[in-house]
Structures are given as structure tokens and as C-alpha cells.
Design a protein that fits this description.
The chain is an alpha/beta fold. Helix content is 42%, strand content 14%. It is built from twelve helices and eight strands. The two termini are 26 Å apart. The relative contact order is 0.13.
Length: 328
Amino acid sequence: MASLLEKITRAGFRIVDACSPDKAGELAFRLFTRTRSTKPQSEKERIALAKAAGRMAESETVRLMIPGSVVATHVFRPSPADDNGGRVLIVHGYRSRSDHMVAVADRLVAAGFTAVCLDLPGHGASTGRVLHLPKAVEAIDAAWRQHGPFDAFVGHSFGGPSVLAAASGAILHVPRRLPKRIVTIAAPADMGEVFRWAGKLLGLGPAAQRSFERQVMRVAGRPLSEFRVDRLAQDLSLPILVVHAEDDKEVAFDNARAIAALGDHTELFRANGYGHRRIVSAPPVTAAVADFVSKALDGGEVIGLQLPASAQSPIVDPDSKEDSRRLA
């Protein structure tokens, strides 16, 4: 059931849409890309941030300039004796922050990697009030120039298409940044679906929806139709690990199937029982990510594992009651 605020917002858009669908689409894009407060949105998040605070304080925070924002990177380093020389960039999702990615960073550090967590514009310790895919790629580029090159990208939720866009050079004004491996976790495969969901939520009519989607061309130099995984990754042959839970209620598991269908350079890891957010701190997931990324240094490749859209077998089966209870 829609909240009072949602009902008022939809009513407002209907009025603007009736006068000018183009203006309604432009206004929808500004609202859609405007970041929210970085304060905890719930008691649950406040507790999670408090738990991560000590570990975050141990990291080295480096702030980088991009147009319209100062983005924060948090560097977690292994001990000199354990350092394997590898570097991994970790990118969170929308309405998230690096604090929520600490478990992934710690597992990579334990494997000898320097883990760099990036706060996207308007999130965590970064400034700015606007976030869309080009802004995310600009931030990734800044992190690459400061801390890279990276052996791997790890992207959760919106961070998934962000790292794919950076690796494919999809944003015309940003240089292509190509790691050796990519991990997507609970990531959407088609930004067009995200825009259609947002347009429906705002109550946009057909003309206003088209105007809303045209804004992508204005900020990215490419139409929205280009920002789906089969287009973003069509020239990427590097190994990709696709992590997703079939019980994810925010990003449907079909998105994982779409990414895994890219070819035999992809692997699909079902992390059932961990939903959309707990998945980034699930021990089976962090272990799988560290193992996959480690192969970037030892020359390991994906061996003959082709997972089509109907891919059925997990590489490791975390879908046990014991694992599900671990983070319940």
C-alpha cells in the first residue's frame, strides 16, 4: 500500500505531466538521482554502522575530487608479511556505504589483498547530492587513478552495473578501466528495468516516461537501452563471478541468470537465504569472492563452466539451513 508521501508525489507528477510531459520527465530524473541523507534510516542500520565503526576507523581514508563531489575511499591493507601485491576495488549499492562492505574487505585482506572501499557520491563519507551511473563511473575512475590499477572489481547491487560500465568504457567521457576479474553481487542486469520501476512508482505517463529515460542520453552520451548487461559486457571476456540469492526481494534472481548467460567466462554462485543486503556479509559469499579474486594473481581461469540463463548448479551450495541461520 502506497504511503501518504508516495500518493502526494504521484498526484504532483500527474499535474506536471498534464502540463508538460517533458518537464515531468526531467523532474523525475532529478528526484530519482538525488541522494538521501547519509544518516541511518533505521535502528537496524544504526546498529550495523556502530558495529563497523571500529574497523572503518582502522582504514586509511583518502578523499578524491570528481565534478560536483568529493568521494571518500577507505583503504584496508594486509600486514607486510601477508601482502600479495593485489588490489581490489569494492563498490556498494544505492543507499548503502562502505561500512556495509567491511566483511568482504576483511576477507580479501586476509587473502593478502589491499581492499579499497569506495563511497559513491552522496553516500557514506562522500559529498554530493546526485548519483547516477556516470557519476558512479567517474568515482571509480578517480579511485583507479589514486589507488589502482586493480586486479578485481567487486560491486554490490547498483555497484554491479557501475563496475561493468567502468570496465567496458560505457561512459564516453571517462576512460575505460579494465581489471582482471569482476564480481557482481545482487546486481541488476538492465538499468532500463530500474527506470521503468521508478516511473511506475512515480506514476509517470507514457510521454513523461520517455522523457525520463531520455535524460540518460544527456548525462551519459548513450541511450538507456545501452545500459543492460548484454550490451555493457558484450566485449568483456574477463572472468566474472555472479553472486545472487534466489530469495532476493529487491533485485530478482533473473538478473543473475542474465549476467551468467554472457558466456563460459562467467560463474554463478547461489547464495540462497541471504536476501539482498545480508548477502555482502555472508561467510560463504565472502569466502567465494576471495577465492575467485585470488585466481587473478595465480593465473587461474574459469575452466569450461558455462551457465546459461537456466543455470542450475551452484559452485558452492550455501543454501543450507545452517548457513541461513548464521545471519538470520
